[in-house]
Amino acid sequence: MADIAAASSAAPPSATALAPAIRAVGLRKSYGDKVVLDGIDLSIPEGTVFALLGPNGAGKTTTVQILSTLIPATAGQARVAGHDLSRTPDAVRSRIGVTGQFAALDNLLTARENLLLMADLHHLPRREGRRRAAELLDRFALSEAAARPVATFSGGMRRKLDLAMTLVGEPRIIFLDEPTTGLDPRSRRTMWEIIRGLVTDDGVTVFLTTQYLEEADQLADRIAVLDHGKLVAEGTAEELKRRIPGGHIRLRFADPGRLESAAALFASAAPDNEALTLQIPGDGSIPTVRAVLDALDSASIAAEALTVHTPDLDDVFLTLTDRPRSSDRTASQADPRTAQRPRTAQRSQDSRNSRTEEAR
Description:
With 360 residues, the protein is an alpha/beta fold. Helix content is 38%, strand content 24%. The protein has 14 helices and 15 strands.
């Protein structure tokens, strides 16, 4: 028994074993009859990245505002950094940092002056404030631009400085509300590297809301999908992808004869005579692809190209959030004109979600 206890204590804790940095039960927010959050539960371990996905109006920003003490919840309980959200909000504020959708910077001040202003707001001693500002300017590669007015900064530089200002108080939990909105792909990837560093090097917890699904896929340890104020799914990126059907292998042939012969080999395949393609349901794994190619080789049928499609977070997002509210369904049933409206969400093209290899 002693050996087992010693071994258990020596083992590194898993993400699920860590104390929750954020825990919420039955969190609800409404404005009169309008329900924005409808009783969500969250448990986010320390030192992890948690991503909250959802369409516009799902309640993502409201969740961040409640957990960061900016607005009160209508009902429910939450603890952030070990402190009760409603009873000790000042203790919560001392442990968190918030970076909103838009950079909260003074354009007339320089980058260094913005950081020193934030240090003063945190009541840091002057020497400590200067040290912290210099450290953050260096960390975010802004030292050369430290004396420039923020009005001259690019979008990527502004976002970096905004995040640097959030870090002046050395928070243990950081709320990032769509931090890369409007950034070009290079600046977005730079921000991703910075966020990863905050978690791996500093051990902070990041609560991320984003509409860039690739961003959540790249950064998040766990992802939750919010729709109409309710959590409709939660898990790792891979767990969420496995919940969505629709994986398939697509073969393209040079002529209708080969397409017809190949279609006869796979009972569940769906041929497209116009595109000369054959779609075969499958999980896209190497054994599945190998089995398809072996069947073609055995029948001496040559395919020109093979494309593997597996569900991604785009598919997860569209499948889980493309659902009207119950009140919307009632209105649609009552109004046939509304019921006939097509869905606005369109699935992304297969080429975006696929990897292609030549089958010779």
